[in-house]
């Protein structure tokens, strides 16, 4: 999983990673927002979800202390990070900055 994750991050296309947990209420609220964002931006960005309970090493590597945490990567490097909920407009505007 980790090697595959690193390959995804190193793609030239921006990657928005949603670090979440199944038990997290706000994470469940963020999920439909991400689906809406994906329908707006299409293939300009890749959106993936990482369950911090199933991938603790990845969560530790990126110092995830609260969920949801969203990180936007470009060419393997984090360019934006936020813990807590993010709005559809905020994410669409952010993604358009980096495509």
Descriptive report:
The chain is 42% helix and 25% strand. It is of the alpha+beta class. The chain has a single domain, classed as Glutaredoxin. The radius of gyration is 12 Å and the shape is globular. It starts with a helix and ends with a helix. The model has no long low-confidence stretch (mean pLDDT 93).
Brief characterization of the structure:
Helix content is 42%, strand content 25%. It is built from four helices and four strands, in the order H-E-H-E-H-E-E-H.
Count of DSSP-assigned helices: 4
**What CATH first level would be assigned?**
Alpha Beta
Average pLDDT over all residues: 93
Q: Summarize the amount of helix as a percent range.
A: 40-55%
How many domains would you count in the coordinates? 1
Write the SSE topology:
Blueprint: H1 2-9, E1 15-20, H2 25-41, E2 46-51, H3 56-61, E3 69-74, E4 77-83, H4 88-98
Parallel strand pairs: 1-2
Antiparallel strand pairs: 1-3, 3-4
Any key phrases for this structure?
4 strands, 25% strand, Glutaredoxin, 99 residues, 4 helices, alpha+beta
